[in-house]
UniProtKB/TrEMBL annotation:
EC number: 4.1.99.3
Alphabetical keyword list: FAD, Flavoprotein, Lyase
Top-level taxon of the source organism: Bacteria
Keyword Membrane in annotation: no
SUPFAM superfamilies assigned to the protein according to its UniProt record, in alphabetical order: Cryptochrome/photolyase FAD-binding domain (SSF48173), Cryptochrome/photolyase, N-terminal domain (SSF52425)
Protein name, entry field: Deoxyribodipyrimidine photo-lyase
Species annotation: Undibacterium luofuense
Disordered: annotated segments: 478-511
Residues bound to FAD: Y210, F266
Composition skew (Basic and acidic residues), residue ranges: 479-491
PROSITE patterns, alphabetized: PHR_CRY_ALPHA_BETA
Domain Photolyase/cryptochrome alpha/beta intervals: 2-131
Amino acid sequence: MSYSLVWLKRDLRWQDHAAMSAAARNGPFACLYVIEPGLWQQPDMAASHYHFIVESLRSLYAALRAMGGQLLILHGDIISVLNALYDHSPFHTMHSHEETGNGWTYERDRQVAVWCREKNVQWQEHRQFGVVRGLRDRNRWQTAWETEMAKPLQTLPESLQWQKLPFDVQVPAAAALGLHQADPPSRQPGGRQQGLQALNTFAEERCMQYRGGISSPLSAPTACSRISPYLSYGCISMRETVQSVRRLLLKLPEQESRQRGGLQAFQSRLYWHCHFIQKLESEPEIEFQPMHRGYTGLREDGWNPLHFQLLTEGRTGWPLVDACVAMLRETGWLNFRMRAMLVSVAAYPLWLHWRDVGCWLATQFVDYEPGIHWSQMQMQSGTTGMNVPRIYNPLKQARDHDPHGRFVRRWLPAMRKVPDSWLFEPWKMPPVMQQQLGFTLGQELPQPPVELEQATRLAKQRLFAVRGQPEVRAAKAAVIEKHGSRVSRTDKPKRKPRQTLPEVVQASLFE
Ligand SMILES: Cc1cc2nc3c(=O)[nH]c(=O)nc-3n(C[C@H](O)[C@H](O)[C@H](O)COP(=O)(O)OP(=O)(O)OC[C@H]3O[C@@H](n4cnc5c(N)ncnc54)[C@H](O)[C@@H]3O)c2cc1C
């Protein structure tokens, strides 16, 4: 008897799984995950992503087995794997979730569509977030998001007809896929249980620190929810997350204002998750080209390999920047503000193009989600054309968010010897003092490669010269029309009408 195939991608769960639920309601089905060598050769992919995925697959494998089923995990390019399965036992339908991935997965999906047509296999793609494929009108987007989030969770029928296939699990070592980067030793572990644990501990307790706690790199690791990798690889679904938060909010007594405030602010971030992914879904080119094409050529010719090397090695000399790189290496995670600051330093004083910096950061973030990542890379580099460029000064950020140097001293051992008065600009310590403390400038204490204020001013001038061009100004409206948020214009309860919408809305993200 023929069956349906469920192709799992960034949706490593069975709960609230539209693709699996549709297949299971339609008779016998089999579940497949493919480890595709081509994907792992892309410059934005890293060993940490792979290990996280393998851990998540392990927990899903056990869960399906406990239900009497099977998770096929096969290694090879997707077309060969589909051919092998089809040649062994042909299937009539393939179900998967819509994926807003990188350029490689986009191209691969086109090939899969061709294969399905040739084999007469019906490929049904289901929505997994509030992201709309083929979106025509951004104005009604938020309403569509609300509708999607309010739908009942997808369930599996009580009696399941598993199609078992005689293929052994194939999980190559990371090195066999060419993944040689170190796995951050304190990275969040993959798996649904771990995702639920992060969500529950946050919703019940940690959310009380959310407001006011998410900006400093000291408090953010516990004040933030830390669910990002579990959403990125689909260990938990967006809908179940939104619904569980809303249920909790309904139950909360009015006087629990700290918890309520935290959960409400968190909820707005969940909305932003889909809002940013929608940009890449609507325009896959923004992985490679500026969102506003008028900024093409802005940084292309100025690539400075030394600046890039100092940044990626965490040796820029600006203590907060270098401490963030050290933390990333150890944990694979940073809070929003510190991510934005790293990109800002790269894009302005170091004048590095967002694409290469973005590939490097993608390999550092365990939660790498192409839609959020590339939209944010462009926003923080000033190439969207629609957001007022926000430039984070790393010295000011350090004064505001790590005034006593606890963070930098934790991550940069050399900083432990630096007296408080030189905490923010240690390279300015008089030579005698450096000698007394046993420092050699340029070694234990790197010296910034540029003078921060001057280099930032020059970068701003270059950016604003492009921004001021009449044709660039004229093209801005089309970018807003396609990608801008409409939250305060159409769907949000109206308080004060505002004109410069995207900038106003984004402000909430800079806490
Ligand atoms: C340059 C840059 C690159 C980024 N790349 C990624 C990425 O690859 N993957 C990723 O998940 N997030 C990315 N972010 C957004 C944000 O920094 C992370 O989502 C957040 O730090 C994850 O931690 P959390 O789950 O504890 O967040 P919380 O603050 O607890 O937020 C809950 C969820 O809301 C979503 N969210 C939060 N902030 C944002 C935001 N600003 N934009 C869109 N969605 C948001 C995420 O899904 C997050 O898991 C990036 C931000 C910047 C500035």
